[in-house]
Write a structure and sequence with these properties.
This protein is of the alpha/beta class. The chain has 2 domains: 128 residues, 3-Layer(aba) Sandwich (Rossmann fold); 203 residues, 3-Layer(aba) Sandwich (Rossmann fold). It contains 13 helices and 14 strands. The chain is elongated. One of its GO terms (biological process) is chemotaxis. This is Protein-glutamate methylesterase/protein-glutamine glutaminase. Keywords: Chemotaxis, Cytoplasm, Hydrolase, Phosphoprotein.
């Protein structure tokens, strides 16, 4: 059975390019195109698509308004088509909160050649979306994202976080999973390094949104900054994020070298640096995402003495990355998304602070 895709975009050029990309794949087909959500609504009833691609900004009805109604009344996998602008990134973050599975970006220049160049990325996202678990999603809030503080273990010794680190990797579905995870972190938690597959221009908006709702500080990593307790550092879309050392301190390092596993930033790159510089002081967490990025790096973390957690299949949007990490034997514990913060903090509480060996 081919994956049935409905394209919704007010640009005839984008509709044509996406149609060409999809029709070149043997396992998917375009079952309709729509210039606006009103036409799309009728096509959805007639064709019952497996995946929608949805433009963010359209006439007659805004893409976000349509997405919100769709996810409330007839949830299905949606990939947003977004502009590489500050406003576009903010709207895309909101779309992911509303339940969109993933997004692709329109290049600023030479749209046709730009989109055709990363056709494989678009089709990979469509394949992942067709298998994604999509649920009716209420408008998220800080209160719904995080349980009461009494659920989480108190961090008795804030100095614990000066030597322990939490290292997180995610891809498809990861923005909401990371939000859920970080919103449950107490203000004295260990420093957290995060790689989420996301293009340049979107990671800063993502970090800014998280910083506004979490107890901890969240920022896009700049490179060279000391990793502090109660802070999370997100890999920028243009570079790999690595853990490094400067004397007795852990610091961030950015690396703009070639993609790894077709990704920059890559989870494997972050995990391998954690294995090298943190060893048993690291706790690894691999969340929802397609592909296998992170599996081998997490295995190296385990060999270096780190303790690793994976999100379970039931709560993943796409179980690819956790499944691969589990398959290679890199994971110690598997848990539901809402339980992961408690499990991670519980482990850290049991394995308390000792003087950092350098």
């Amino acid at each position: 059975m081919k994956i049935k895709v409905l394209i919704i975009d007010d640009s005839a050029l984008i509709r044509s390019i996406l149609s060409e990309i999809i029709r070149n794949e043997s396992d998917m087909e375009v079952i309709g195109v729509a210039p606006d959500p009103l036409v799309a609504r009728e096509l959805i009833k007639q064709t019952n698509p497996d995946v929608l691609t949805l433009d963010v900004e359209m006439p007659k009805m805004d893409g976000l308004d349509f997405l919100e109604k769709l996810m409330r009344l007839r949830p299905m996998p949606v990939i947003m088509v977004s502009s590489l602008t500050e406003r576009g990134s903010e709207i895309t973050m909101r779309a992911l909160e509303l339940g969109a599975v993933d997004f692709v970006t329109k290049p600023k220049l030479s749209i046709q050649s730009g989109m055709l160049e990363y056709a494989h990325v678009i089709t990979d996202k469509i394949r992942a979306a067709s298998k994604a678990k999509v649920r009716t999603r209420a408008v998220s809030s800080v209160a719904s994202a995080a349980p009461s503080s009494s659920v989480l273990p108190a961090m008795k010794n804030p100095l614990l976080s000066s030597e322990k680190l939490i290292i997180v990797g995610a891809s498809t579905g990861g923005t909401e999973a990371i939000k859920s995870f970080l919103c449950q972190m107490p203000s004295d938690c260990p420093g957290i390094l995060i790689t989420q597959h996301m293009p340049e221009g979107f990671t800063k908006s993502f970090a800014k949104r998280l910083d506004g709702i979490c107890k901890i500080s969240v920022s896009e990593a700049q490179g060279g900054e000391r990793i502090l307790p109660g802070h999370a550092y997100i890999a920028p879309g243009h570079s790999h994020l690595k853990l490094a050392r400067s004397g007795a301190n852990y610091v961030t390092e950015l690396d703009a070298s070639e993609p790894v596993n077709r990704h920059r930033p890559s989870v494997d790159v972050l995990f391998r640096s954690a294995a090298k510089f943190a060893g048993k002081n690291a706790v690894g967490v691999i969340l929802t995402g397609m592909g296998k990025d992170g599996a081998e790096g997490m295995l190296e973390m385990k060999a270096a003495g780190a303790f690793n957690f994976a999100q379970d299949e039931a709560t993943c949007v796409v179980f690819g990355m956790p499944r691969e990490a589990i398959a290679v034997g890199a994971v110690h514990e598997v848990a539901a998304l809402n339980d992961l913060p408690t499990r991670v903090l519980g482990y850290l509480e049991q394995h308390g602070s000792r003087a950092l060996r350098v």
